[in-house]
Write a structure and sequence with these properties.
single chain, alpha/beta, Rossmann fold, Pantoate--beta-alanine Ligase, Chain: A,domain 2, 2 domains, 4-stranded antiparallel sheet, 39% helix, globular, pantoate-beta-alanine ligase activity
């Protein structure tokens, strides 16, 4: 079937209801658009287990801070729809802000204490409240069987899993491994902000945190490794490092313990782009 586009919750629910009547399993892939191969990998993964796959495009104002790139964030719906159709997506849900939050902008928010206010949340206050609120709405608007999110945004994935469990939202949250360029750079819509010279430097982030992971496994100290890695990035041309941290993979609020699964989390500025990445 060809990709269809709907813009209201009523239309979305009507289509999902029809699929349900036919016994079809439904998957959801929430995005902010400007789709790349990482997003399409989510759709392809969803198609492996679901009969019908919905992708959403909504640039969510509630997750942008006052000095962030809400107005300039890339918006390419026509191209995005063509990409979704090319990989077999069935439905695009592309609401406007009023459809999502109502005429008054909405007053309810979802906040995940102890997880949404650490690490990335310290540098972007309110960011995860915005993410948790809009994803809660999308899950309840579509009520899919499964929803798919990339591991590139590892803390975000953990936040979504936590509030979904806490709120008894009957959707299975699936994490999908990070998709990378051939040189290791994690695919991201914000990579478009990199000029040519910066794009050549950018893969240093992935190489550095991968080295941190290896050194930690053989006895390196977390604090010393973080300092070393930050200096590596500065020396390579990054102009600011927000954090490089080694945490427990299953609880990123906790410091990593040798011999247990870990996650190295990083965020750093290169030109106009703030790059985030992580490795296990």
């Amino acid at each position: 079937m060809a990709l269809a586009t709907v813009r209201t919750v009523a239309e979305l629910r009507a289509q999902v209801s029809e699929w349900r009547k036919n016994g079809l399993k439904v998957g959801l892939v929430p995005t902010m658009g400007a789709l790349h191969e990482g997003h399409l990998a989510l759709v392809k993964t969803a198609l492996e287990t679901c009969d019908r796959v919905i992708a959403t495009i909504f640039v969510n104002p509630k997750q942008f801070g006052p000095n962030e790139d809400l107005e300039t964030y890339p918006r390419t719906e026509a191209e995005d729809a063509a990409k979704l159709a090319s990989v077999g997506g069935h439905l695009l849900f592309a609401p406007n802000v009023e459809e999502m939050y109502g005429a008054d902008g909405g007053v309810t928010k979802v906040s995940v204490a102890g997880l949404g206010d650490i690490i990335e949340g310290e540098f972007r206050p309110g960011f995860f409240d915005g993410v948790a609120t809009v994803v809660t709405k999308l899950l309840l608007q579509a009520l899919p069987d499964e929803a798919f999110f990339g591991e590139k945004d590892y803390q975000q994935l953990n936040v979504i899993k936590r509030f979904s469990a806490d709120l008894n939202i009957p959707v299975d949250i699936k994490g999908v491994p990070t998709v990378r360029e051939s040189d290791g750079l994690a695919m991201s819509s914000r990579n478009a902000y990199l000029i040519r010279e910066e794009r050549e430097i950018a893969p240093v982030l992935y190489r550095t945190i991968s080295e941190v992971s290896e050194r930690f496994k053989v006895g390196g100290k977390a604090e010393a490794l973080s300092k070393w890695a930050s200096q590596q990035l500065i020396d390579a041309g990054f102009h600011k490092v927000d954090y490089i941290l080694i945490r427990k993979a299953d609880d990123i609020a906790q410091e990593a313990v040798k011999g247990e699964p870990i996650r190295v989390l990083a965020a750093a500025f290169l030109g106009k782009a703030r790059l985030i990445d992580n490795v296990g």
